[in-house]
Amino acid sequence: MTQIIRTVADLRLIIRGWKKAGESIGVVPTMGALHEGHLSLARAAKADCPRVITTIFVNPMQFGNPEDLKKYPRSEAADVALLTTVGVDLVFIPQPEEVYPDGFVTTVSVGGVSEPLEGRMRPGHFDGVATVVTKLFGMTEADRGYFGQKDWQQLQVVQRLVRDLNLPVTVVGCETIREADGLAMSSRNVRLTSDGRAKAGVLFSAITAGADDIRAGQSDRMAIREAAEKLRAVGFDRVEYIELRDAETLMPSDDPRRPRRMLAAAWLDGVRLIDNIPV
Ligand code: AMP
Fold it and tell me: How many structural domains compose the chain?
């Protein structure tokens, strides 16, 4: 049975029993509005760990824009029903006051990897992510944490954080789950109009073609320019960035011997879409 827990005190009681029995804990942090991408993380956790916790918390600290926070889709009952089908043991759904009680003043800030791309476009975002992930790992006593490659830079930030702070958690990065046309599943996709939805798959096809061209010897700059042109041609409002970066540090990289990643963020229909692929 999937239990719903809303306070840290209740969570600790249950976890104490699991730890006493020697059971390891896999944790899947989410902001809810769950889809197949989230469920794939929960399934990966189930395959590795005797106990699995999914957290649902729309973290105000990682939203720069209050409108975006307000408009973020919420669907608790449906989320819990989906997690039950996967066999998740516990869903932790705290209120903001439970996570950030009066007097809370600590921020976890990861340098380097969190600075470019999303960090530049969304100031403070990764401080919010790093702080809440550190807290959630502490609250849940996670042995393993599951994150999607969909948010590639976030995954690198969490890896760095765990290494730098010696957190006793193994971070697992899971493949991006996509719709049939290649669009990476995202809770924000429901905000697209049907016209926008019909065009949204071009983000993936454009960066895929760009990555193929680079592997075939085309210049990085030319491949990126062509990808951006494809997005504009189909009606994307704004291309924030398309960049080829070192897959781990997220710094500019022209060294094809190192793993590299093409990462993109673009606006369609007033919705900000992000995606990334290996090059
Ligand atoms: P979110 O609820 O958007 O904060 O996402 C929670 C976790 O699910 C993060 O680790 C995301 O990277 C991951 N995730 C979101 N969408 C996908 C997807 N399409 N495929 C795989 N993982 C995903």
Answer: 2
**Distance of alpha carbon 157 from alpha carbon 175, whole angstroms:** 17
Task: Show the ligand 1 pocket: residues with CB < 6 angstroms.
Answer: 30-31, 37-38, 40-41, 147-148, 150-151, 174, 176-177, 184-187
The answer, as to whether pTM is greater than 0.90, is yes
pLDDT tens digit sequence for 226-276: 999 999 999 999 999 999 999 999 999 888 899 999 999 999 999 999 999
Tokens 């957290």 sit on residue? 55
Atom 10, ligand 1: residue with shortest CA distance? 147
Mutational pocket test of ligand 1: of 151, 187, 188, the residue with most ligand atoms within 8 Å of the beta carbon: 151
Q: Which of 26, 34, 38, 91 is catalytic?
A: 38
Q: What is the pLDDT of residues 47-97, one digit of tens each?
A: 999 999 999 999 999 999 999 999 999 999 999 999 999 999 999 999 999
Looking at residue 200, which CATH number applies to its domain?
3.30.1300.10
Which residue, 146, 174, 202, sits at the end of a domain?
Answer: 174
Nearest CA to ligand 1 atom 6: 30
Rounded Cα–Cα distance for residues 276 and 178 (Å): 12
**Structural tokens at position 74:** 């919420």
Task: Tell me whether residue 38 is one of the annotated catalytic residues.
Answer: yes
- Single residue among 174, 199, 221 that ends a domain in this structure: 174
Q: Identify the domain containing residue 117 by its residue range.
A: 3-174
3-state secondary structure 106-146: CCCCCCHHHCCCHHHHCCCHHHHHHHHHHHHHHHHCCCEEE
Task: Give the CATH number of the domain where residue 128 resides.
Answer: 3.40.50.620
